[in-house]
Amino acid sequence: MTNKIIRAILSTCLLDKTQSTKSKRKEFIVLQTNDYCILSYLSSNQLDQPIDQVGRIIQIFNQSNITIADRHGTIHHSLLLTGLLKQQISQASDSLTVGDFVSFENKAGQLVISDVLPRVNQLSKNISSARKSIHVKSGVQLLAANVSDVFIVVACDQRFTIALLERYLLAFSLNHVQLHILLTKRDFRQGFTQISQLIEQAYPKLSCLSLSIYDQTVLLFLTRFYQPKVLRSLSALLELVNRRLSIS
């Protein structure tokens, strides 16, 4: 089952990250600024960092161009990493990612990120690439950190099997994460009926929603659901929600 059939929408409390295939740069759509869950994160993890020096990563272009949001919802662009943190990241198995909570400070008029705070969880996927030689390069791609909800999106006009759905459920089963199934193109009634029955029989307790572009009620529900959050999306569904919120 390809990404055209099942895609994951990952909410990291407050932001969206999509991948541009033309420029290979990461772009973001902020649905609502709020405090980016910074206060609740600090209180629940009993951290004593000064709250005005804690931000959340919402864009990463490279290690010399990072965008964060602070607890007031103010966006700060073009942050750098301190030399020590850059060295620590280069020696670690993973790197910074969208959703990370970080400590930042002002050094000679330049905002810099000085530390990465502990993660509640992190979402990643295995990647592999075959070159012209017989060698295959494999590794792990970090997608997001501090994730609260995962929506696995299933299009009702595509081929579907429970076995492939289970692979996504297994990959996205993380601590402190709520899994949801979102059936799109519900107006394909035969496919919708078959797929919904299969999921209900296999996972009767799993949260399952359905929608169609012709049904505005579900879009309103998603809008309310994500009012205090932001989506990191691998599908075009976010565009519908953004449109509903009148966000350009």
From TrEMBL:
Signal peptide per UniProt: none
Family matches, as Pfam families: RsgA_GTPase
Entries under Gene3D superfamilies matching the protein: P-loop containing nucleotide triphosphate hydrolases
MF-aspect GO terms: GTP binding; GTPase activity
Protein name: Ribosome biogenesis GTPase
Stored InterPro entries: P-loop_NTPase (IPR027417), RsgA_GTPase_dom (IPR010914)
The organism's place on the tree of life at top rank: Bacteria
All copies of domain EngC GTPase, residue ranges: 118-201
Species: Oenococcus kitaharae DSM 17330
